[in-house]
Design brief:
Number of strands: 0
Helix content: over 70%
Order of helices and strands: HHHHHHHHHHHH
CATH architecture of the domain at 5-189: Orthogonal Bundle
CATH topology of the domain at 5-189: ABC transporter involved in vitamin B12 uptake, BtuC
CATH superfamily of the domain at 5-189: ABC transporter involved in vitamin B12 uptake, BtuC
Distance between the termini: 49 Å
Radius of gyration: 18 Å
CATH class of the domain at 5-189: Mainly Alpha
Length: 265
């Protein structure tokens, strides 16, 4: 079954959707969209360092994403607004990564594949990395679900409950770094944030509980991956952007349906 490239691509897309969906809910609730975008942009620098040092791209991107999060944490509240700080770091990391890639001699690299994904070239080894990373992210979120939710709703309530919001932030940061690393092959660094945010935002109006929102977001992400991949195959369009286009269409359609129900009600 895995000899078919479409099967491998479909499984890879679903794996990324399952990793991004619950994490995307926390990104939406905490208004961390720009932080997710900054972490994704920094992944290109991780790719360049991984190729230069001849280590796993997964390890390199996770390491750079964690360093990005640490720098943001250390510099927050030192005279710069969060969005300004994230803007500087995100675009600086992306620029340094692109420049670093140009210095790599003797290494053939398809930069567009890292920027926008190369889903149809997913190998069996890539599937192991994607699903292993997705399983780790889901396990972390399930393990820390209640503390994460409490810290997201109210920091004072978290402290009163004996929780450390900074520790929960670290769990989210680690999960985000892993998701970015496994999603590079599927949608590329420029579109990873979209897979985090759009399915979660689309699920927000349908869910009555946080757990339901995470489940619905996972379903929307998986549907987007399958439908986007089929559309890319039939229309000869880029796979990663096609998946994001389907997610955006679902977001718009669900919001229009909700608006129509509110008008009739």
């Amino acid at each position: 079954m895995l000899d078919d490239f479409m099967t491998r691509a479909t499984l890879a897309g679903i794996g990324v959707a399952f990793a991004a969906a619950p994490l995307g809910c926390f990104v939406v609730w905490r208004r961390m969209a720009y932080f997710g975008d900054a972490t994704a942009h920094a992944a290109i620098l991780g790719v360049a360092l991984s190729l230069a040092l001849q280590v796993s791209i997964f390890a390199g991107t996770v390491a750079v994403a964690l360093v990005m999060a640490l720098v943001v944490t250390l510099l927050t509240g030192r005279g710069y607004a969060m969005d300004t700080l994230l803007g500087v770091l995100a675009h600086s990391a992306l620029a340094f990564g692109l420049v670093a890639v140009s210095f790599l001699s003797g290494i053939r690299i398809d930069l567009m594949a890292y920027l926008f994904g190369d889903l149809l070239a997913v190998s069996r080894g890539d599937l192991v990395v994607i699903w292993g990373g997705a399983a780790l992210v889901v396990a972390l979120i399930v393990w820390r679900w209640s503390p994460l939710l409490t810290s997201t709703l109210n920091h004072e309530l978290a402290y009163a409950s004996g929780l450390n919001p900074k520790r929960e932030q670290l769990v989210l940061t680690l999960s985000l770094a892993i998701t970015v690393a496994v999603a590079i092959k599927v949608v590329g660094v420029l579109l990873i944030a979209a897979m985090l945010i759009i399915p979660a935002a689309a699920a927000r109006g349908l869910a009555r509980t946080p757990e339901a929102m995470a489940g619905i977001a996972a379903a929307i992400g998986a549907i987007s991956a399958v439908a986007g991949l089929q559309g890319a195959y039939l229309l000869d369009t880029p796979a990663g952007p096609s998946i994001v286009c389907v997610a955006a269409i679902l977001f718009a359609a669900l919001n229009l349906l909700q608006w129509g129900r509110e008008r009739r009600g």
